[in-house]
Amino acid sequence: xxxxxxxxxxxxxxxxxxxxxxxxxxxxxxxxxxxxxxxxxxxxxxxxxxxxxxxxxxxxxxxxxxxxxxxxxxxxxxxxxxxxxxxxxxxxxxxxxxxxxxxxxxxxxxxxxxxxxxxxxxxxxxxxxxxxxxxxxxxxxxxxxxxxxxxxxxxxxxxxxxxxxxxxxxxxxxxxxxxxxxxxxxxxxxxxxxxxxxxxxxxxxxxxxxxxxxxxxxxxxxxxxxxxxxxxxxxxx
Amino acid sequence: xxxxxxxxxxxxxxxxxxxxxxxxxxxxxxxxxxxxxxxxxxxxxxxxxxxxxxxxxxxxxxxxxxxxxxxxxxxxxxxxxxxxxxxxxxxxxxxxxxxxxxxxxxxxxxxxxxxxxxxxxxxxxxxxxxxxxxxxxxxxxxxxxxxxxxxxxxxxxxxxxxxxxxxxxxxxxxxxxxxxxxxxxxxxxxxxxxxxxxxxxxxxxxxxxxxxxxxxxxxxxxxxxxxxxxxxxxxxxxxxxxxxxxxxxxxxxxxxxxxxxxxxxxxxxxxxxxxxxxxxxxxxxxxxxxxxxxxxxxxxxxxxxxxxxxxxxxxxxxxxxxxxxxxxxxxxxxxxxxxxxxxxxxxxxxxxxxxxxxxxxxxxxxxxxxxxxxxxxxxxxxxxxxxxxxxxxxxxxxxxxxxxxxxxxxxxxxxxxxxxxxxxxxxxxxxxxxxxxxxxxxxxxxxxxxxxxxxxxxxxxxxxxxxxxxxxxxxxxxxxxxxxxxxxxxxxxxxxxxxxxxxxxxxxxxxxxxxxxxxxxxxxxxxxxxxxxxxxxxxxxxxxxxxxxxxxxxxxxxxxxxxxxxxxxxxxxxxxxxxxxxxxxxxxxxxxxxxxxxxxxxxxxxxxxxxxxxxxxxxxxxxxxxxxxxxxxxxxxxxxxxxxxxxxxxxxxxxxxxxxxxxxxxxxxxxxxxxxxxxxxxxxxxxxxxxxxxxxxxxxxxxxxxxxxxxxxxxxxxxxxxxxxxxxxxxxxxxxxxxxxxxxxxxxxxxxxxxxxxxxxxxxxxxxxxxxxxxxxxxxxxxxxxxxxxxxxxxxxxxxxxxxxxxxxxxxxxxxxxxxxxxxxxxxxxxxxxxxxxxxxxxxxxxxxxxx
Lengths: 237, 852
Hints:
By secondary structure, chain A is α/β, with parallel strands linked by helices. In chain A, 16% of the residues lie in helices and 27% in strands. By secondary structure, chain B is of the alpha/beta class. The interface between A and B is large, with 41 and 50 residues.
């Protein structure tokens, strides 16, 4: 544990400060910033199932409901004033139009009484109607910059998604893969939250621009807590 | 009157055939004539004959005679309604499980056809057949087409099918005993049902090795009428000479456990030396690798010994097979990859290393030696450990009694039905009522309900979800004429790219590269473009760390990197591989053989036939613990180095034991006995933990009858299924077969590794939101007999009810030693993944807080 933990403590969640900002990472895969009363979620890929259905692959159409109900639990837990969805909130630009009415209502209900910001992602670059909230491409609050795609160069403190980090760890003669938060001193890449969002091994070369020379620590999502694993212990595929 | 004279006078065989037989100094065999007679009377027939019994010729004789009598095929142009085609048409279809077998049989058929000057065109059609030839075959089919179940499915899913098969008279199904035990058999049964519709009056001939229930296969061969059973006729060839099967008396003592048979390598080598050509069968690829490697280490005479298993590169395998046929090899170390197939030349000895697993399987393997019926085939069994001695003994007795233990006919799988329905919609549009009747005429689907059929139809159309949201994307649609057809040609294209029921474990290519030689931490690029050695399962690769060495393709290799879905390896100078990669055999010990093993164990009068070391082992067990009766389940408990152990001996195979281990662990957890782990082998299960299980049983507050009660297959099983990776692996294969996930998509090749990822996520979501979905039901049906072997576990729990014998001990018993020795050596498919993460995370904390 790093000293000077957040004023409000949440069992099982892990303190994950970035610069002077004290952040709490939740085993469900969302991030909470107590000072700003802000909850961040990345890569929900809502309506991925129906996106595939357009081409004749009928994935179970329950992914949106599954993702939203997990998000609702996280919201109930932290009751934040604001929520950021860090892009790729929908699997494609037409996703919002395919939302079932129950799911749409659930989404709008979560927004009641709080600010909701949609960041543009590469899957859902354009603002959509009927899903509430406000749209923006990028957002900075205090010292933190929120972006969909991590930038390799900038020197600021950054929280992003897009890469869907997954870490692989060996033990007891086998290997376990889990979604994870990946963090260095200045950056954090959040795990994908969507029920159908796949993952990319954190040792994949796509991460080397963000975290050169194994400069990350992985925080793997467990059933009830996070597990912190050093970069060297994360296996490549 | 000799047989030849009887044949001549019976008129069964036309003169040129008689002359041909005579010219070769042969006489037609009785079963060949029986089959011919039945076929000529219009009957469908199952022929059961041992290898080398002239089975294939028997299967084709009716067709050759038919076509001889028909004369040269009358070529004329006919209208198919769409265009003009040459008529004549297909007469006989031959289906083989192996592509290579189809090609080989075609070659063998050409000899009599050419020598008798018969006006018959014989062709093959496999995945390797060039597109131009395939196109031509559709327009101008041969008289006899030899192909595989998958190719047949493809032909049936085309608009040409009615034309192509309208003239079909006969289907010959080779190695039927092997086909019917898998989903390929389900698919073939549905295709057969289609053929019966397209070609009324169609006859079938099934060729099979000896099986336990011939009636199952007889039903498979004919259309099943509603509410009753129809069977094909049966012809059984006379058995050849009794096989000569013995067990090796090893020069060294038989090990307690393990599967290497290391103690017998010298004996194996000497046997190879003493025979002309030897087949050395083993149960797993890694055993094959290891034995092959070790045989070459002691191969002072430079005998030509080769290696053959399914993971080796195809070209490499063909090379070995050809060398075998030429007679230029002294021995081949092989897995079930050589269980079936062509005649491998002049083999005079079959060695089976390790457990025989089943009596029928063993007989078929031994039958590969000596393809002449009048001489006995010679087989030698080499047990790798003491329990395997009992199993070998049981198998030898079973073989002597001609006992068979092939599995019963499968119940047709629903995922296969889904694939078939889509295939039907890709061909001629179908009427659902007619198709339902047709499907139920296939023996495996005889009990299919209309509700299930409709659910599968709904799945194919729009996914079969309670939430009806995909209607507008439907894949197949019912037209004005009440017939279903695909809504877009691209779906037919996708079907053709994904046909088949063989969903392999995700495999990674193994590529040989130059070692980068550098020490740890070197991250330079690795030379690419080396030779492909073969493939390994992904889960094997997943457990390797860079620098690990393992045996593959007969060499010790060093794992260098994973790149582009390939495993890069270099040659290693290590003499011992670091990773001992024993993985349980694909086939569990048969229920029948297990019962025999229990009988041998229970009855000391049987022990006399066992090697001294094994007999002494059992004697000490009798003295130190006890020998369970044949129907009893012995449960031993004992303490050992601050842990408490429970060892039981169900003899139901590793898979069922693993499932039992998972479920018992849950229950012990609830009983606060703090279980820590378990290990299973083919015969026994050992569980250990921190709580004293034996004491709790003796005190009476833990009842073994409750611990082992059948109700563990209720909620405990459900809870475990929700999270186990084994169930996800099962579901993945259902999703691929049913077409939920495409292996190959027009325009983009989806890597198989990507498929794994997404089916796990789909499984989680579907299980939570629609647990009764047709694909989850299919997965549960597979789990009952597949990786989880739940059905067998259930039968065992019911068998041992009231027959559990608890023996509290001070220390480990002789019978428990083999399974105890596997602790730490065996990979347990545990699901305690969070614990693994916790251990890894603690490691980090220790490292961070270490003062040095």
